[in-house]
């Protein structure tokens, strides 16, 4: 779009100037009466534009504007302003469409229902290829589907892809479970929630072990929590000590829950220190706790960095702080990892649930336009 300012003695002369310079398709954005300070005489200032890309734009063209030369000056100004506002609103609409087409790359080439479904998936942070795959699958089920059943089909498709790891209270074998993950992701809180639930629902002998003895107060925090919930506790101050504790405890306890220090997945040193504890503990169950508010890119990287720990499943934490899990579930599913638990607050033990694929699928489409 080219925009140009014109000055003329009157509106008629101004219009002629605009048409001569910008052509019949030009639109007037504003016109106002000005005073020349040197001479004290009045003149008209016109701002006009021509849409180079779409010369057939529906915008009001000069040729369409009512004849203004006979109108009193006040009305001419009001008319100019109204046309200006109309033009601005049309420009805004056009920009919104362009923006939407850029953001939702493929929506323009889809039918209205599938375009809406695709937009909802992108709004829920689905990776684009996965969003398109879902749209394709839903259209294969029923090409003429309405929006609401389309959403239900999508949820069923996700639910089928989500793997679930059964909760600890229904596991019958002796278990050494290790909780690992990034700093502050909810390892210690999740461990205590699970310990309390298993204690309430089964008659298993449970031992809580802290290998988080590097951080000041790490082991003490868990020791206090264990005392409150009445579960025996031990602290391991080195990988060797952890091995000794676990080996001895295996005979007396059905379930040994090991808390570890929070790690930065981008630090090789952090990950390798954790590996020393992991190798000594030899857990037969390893939970990776993932904060559900993370982006899919970060989750992908975390899964990659922790993959050396023979992960059994994921504990998806802090869903109460998260708007959608559409971005991260496909990444977890792609890694082939089951989800064991979902945590939804700080209360022990209330704010944890065994993972349910239908509830997870629901949360994947939480954000609506
Ligand atoms: N809102 C919310 N807060 C949670 C949840 N789970 C844990 N938290 C809180 O998150 C904070 C960190 O939780 P911790 O269990 O200490 O996390 P951690 O992974 O053990 O942390 P580090 O040992 O420091 O790496 C605490 O304030 C918890 O109460 C949850 O599901 N929702
Ligand atoms: Mg902790």
Description:
The protein is of the alpha/beta class and 369 residues long. The chain folds into 3 domains: 2-102, no CATH class; 104-161, no CATH class; 168-363, 3-Layer(aba) Sandwich (Rossmann fold). The protein contains 12 helices and 11 strands. The protein has helices at 11-22, 73-103, 112-123, 128-141, 147-161, 187-201, 218-229, 239-252, 268-281, 296-305, 329-334, 357-363, and strands spanning 2-8, 27-35, 42-50, 175-181, 206-210, 233-235, 255-259, 285-291, 313-317, 339-343, 352-354. The strands form 2 sheets. The protein has an 8-stranded mixed beta sheet with strand order 6-5-7-4-8-9-10-11, sandwiched between helices. It has a 3-stranded antiparallel beta sheet with strand order 1-3-2. Strand 10 (339-343) and strand 11 form a beta hairpin. Helix 3 (112-123) runs antiparallel to helix 4, helix 4 packs across helix 5 and helix 5 (147-161) crosses helix 12. The radius of gyration is 33 Å and the shape is elongated. 35% of the residues are buried.
Major β-sheet strand ordering: 6-5-7-4-8-9-10-11
The CATH topology assignment of the largest domain is Rossmann fold
| Ligand types | guanosine-5'-triphosphate, magnesium ion
Structural class: alpha/beta
* Global mean pLDDT: 88
| CATH architecture classification name of the largest domain | 3-Layer(aba) Sandwich
Shape: elongated
Helix and strand string, N-terminal first? EHEEHHHHEHEHEHEHEHEHEEH
Count up the domains. Answer: 3
Helical segment count: 12
**Rg calc:** 33 Å
Q: How many runs of DSSP E, i.e. beta strands?
A: 11
> Helicity range of the residues?
40-55%
